[in-house]
Amino acid sequence: MTCITARNLLHAFLDGELDLVRHLEIEHHLQDCKSCSEIHESQLNLRAALRSDAFYHLAPAGLRERVTASLADSIGVMPRRIRIPWRWGAVAAAAACLALVSWMAGRISLGFAERSERRLADAVLVGHVRSLLGSHLTDVASNDRHEVKPWFTGKLDYSFTVPNLDAAGFPLTGGRLDYLTDRTVAALVYQRNKHAINLFLWPATEERDTSSQSLSSQGYQFVHWVKGKMEYWAVSDLNERELLEFAELVRGNKGN
């Protein structure tokens, strides 16, 4: 891949809009090209700066009261001849408009949520495939969860459970650090026969419990759920039934 091609695709790369092959091509290019890597780093820093609290300002405490008072004064001096009496037809029309706006807002919000989950699934897939290339499936290779969990200490700003699923036929093979959605996350690696399973987990935006949602892309299966304070994504080339079985075992595991 040339520098010109990489730079033309860099914004789409940052937004997670590229297909798997292109995404990996740019990743490899950034590892080899210092100039493009610096541009990429600069754009990451700009994105982080734009998302920081420095660009958000709270309105003064008394602003609401002043605006409310100003509106009340304006209504109070409004000439009577321009007051428009309400009619039931106008009320019905306003209610219909409000219902339409609410419905459209709900659809737009749902669309954003679906696109966000799709983008996250693409990032998870890239992380899974990247781990299978070469020899970076694990940073710590061990089937002992009491060795794997301590390895992450000090490398992440959160703690988590490492399930022991040996008896169910999903042995642990290790773990590693990965980078998804602008943050470093934990990836636990399990095995099912000759199939690798990547279990990505990180703190959820809010504490809740959701059911397991499965989807597929490019020959891979995903299962996504939130349990308590943690969000989970399992991905593998296993069939859907076995990956769902794995997900339910993780959800029900009580080990530490």
Please, could you describe this protein's structure?
The structure is a single chain. By secondary structure, the chain is of the alpha+beta class. Among the domains are: 3-48, no CATH class; 137-252, Phosphorylase Kinase, domain 1. 47% of the residues lie in helices and 23% in strands. It has 8 helices and 6 strands. The protein has helices at 3-8, 10-14, 20-32, 34-50, 63-76, 88-132, 145-151, 240-252; strands spanning 140-141, 172-180, 183-192, 195-209, 213-217, 220-236. Helix 3 packs across helix 4 (34-50).
Q: Strand arrangement, largest sheet?
A: 1-2-3-4-6-5
Q: Uncertain regions: pLDDT < 50 for 5+ in a row?
A: 107-113
Q: What does the radius of gyration come to?
A: 25 Å
Q: State the share of residues found in helices, binned by percent.
A: 40-55%
The CATH superfamily of one domain turns out to be MucB/RseB, C-terminal domain
CATH fold type of one domain: Phosphorylase Kinase, domain 1
CATH class of one domain: Alpha Beta
Strand content: 15-25%
Extended strand count: 6
Query: How confident overall, as mean pLDDT?
Result: 79
Look at the helices and sheets and give the structural class.
Answer: alpha+beta
The rough form would be described as globular
Q: What pattern of helices and strands is seen along the backbone?
A: HHHHHHEHEEEEEH
For the sheet with most strands, the description reads: 6 strands, antiparallel
Distance between the termini: 45 Å
Helical segment count: 8
Q: Identify the CATH architecture of one domain.
A: 2-Layer Sandwich
